[in-house]
Amino acid sequence: MARGVISLAHRAGGNLALNKIVAMTHQPAIRKAVIPVAGLGTRLFPASHAVKKELFPIVGQDGIARALFHYHLLELTAAGIEEICVIVQPGEEAMIHAYLQGPGDDYLRRLEKYPALRREADQMRGFGKQICFAVQHEQEGYGHAVFQSREFANGEMVLLCLGDHLFRGTEISPYQELARMAALSQGRSVSAVNRISAGELKGYGTIAGARRAENPRLIDISLIIEKPDAATARAKLRVNDLPAETWLGWFGMHLLAPSIYDVLAEMIRDNVRDNGEFQLTRAQEIQRQREGYLALEMTGAERFDFGTPDDYVRSLGAFRH
């Protein structure tokens, strides 16, 4: 999973062409999303011991302070998502339920003086009806966490979002744009990617592939490697039309075909681990080998990383403006 400073996706051509193609194509409905929040938040200890990091306060452009994961709910619902699975540690369901349930009647009466905040409380209770939970009982890696949502997915594609990152677009919501890729992927997974430098490779799954002529932002992936070193990236991970010493790495959002759960099940059965954990990136590469895999280069979209103290401080100010 990516860590580091706020990343601004580089612009590339093809926005209008892509939107036109999607508009002309029958679009399967993406109804489900998954938000993993089962991490321990070790790098944000001791604050993460008092409050789960995905519940840390983040002030939006509208000046309202919300829990970090609350913004995912807002964006996913706006993108047409109907059901959301939150992956938690044992016992954490209660704190998220309590947050979405909001305050009691006495407090709500106080909020009558602040109409915008009262609307937030009402909307939060609505979100509570859209979410369900999957529990990761053991810390066995990101892929293992995602696997816990298999029953929720129930054979459908899901939109997966990193729980401790936020995403925002200048022209279109990244959540909405990636969800639309189901119209073009022919049932294959699609991951959002953006441009990274050699110094950032250690934090990202990174791809090789070829851009499609009719839409250069859409890439047929030929290889996926988790956190490659620079020498490996230079030798194996090229995408045409990128400047020298520039690669495409995971943006933090994935549209996953249901076969990802079959791959993860096989990895867990056969104890296929990387650095002691079941990694989602390994499963994505296996899925690519079997049925193909696409990437969408995000343009005009920002990722805000809240995973470390310094990143939290930087992203907190940037997300507000």
Walkthrough of the structure:
By secondary structure, the protein is of the alpha/beta class. The chain has one domain (7-320): Alpha-Beta Complex (Spore Coat Polysaccharide Biosynthesis Protein SpsA, Chain A). Helices cover 35% and strands 25% of the residues. The strands form 3 sheets. It has a 5-stranded mixed barrel with strand order 9-12-10-11-13. Strands 1-14-8 form a 3-stranded antiparallel beta sheet. A two-stranded antiparallel ribbon has the order 3-4. It is globular and about 60 Å long.
For the structure shown, list the relevant keywords:
321 residues; alpha/beta; Spore Coat Polysaccharide Biosynthesis Protein SpsA, Chain A; 5-stranded mixed barrel; 25% strand
Low-confidence stretches: 1-14, 20-27
Whole-number average pLDDT? 92
Q: Strand share of the residues?
A: 15-25%
Total of DSSP H or I helical runs spanning 4+ residues:
13
Element order: H for helix, E for strand: EHEHEEHEHHHEHHEEHEEEHEHHEEH
Reading off the top of the CATH hierarchy, the class is best stated as Alpha Beta
Strands side by side in the biggest sheet? 9-12-10-11-13
Based on Cα principal axes, name the global outline: globular
Mind telling me the C-alpha Rg? Answer: 19 Å
Total number of strands: 14
Q: What is the CATH T-level topology? A: Spore Coat Polysaccharide Biosynthesis Protein SpsA, Chain A
**What number of structural domains do the residues give?**
1
CATH architecture: Alpha-Beta Complex
Structural class: alpha/beta
Helical content class: 25-40%
The major sheet is characterized as: 5 strands, mixed, barrel
At the fourth level of CATH, the homologous superfamily is: Spore Coat Polysaccharide Biosynthesis Protein SpsA, Chain A
C-alpha termini separation:
25 Å
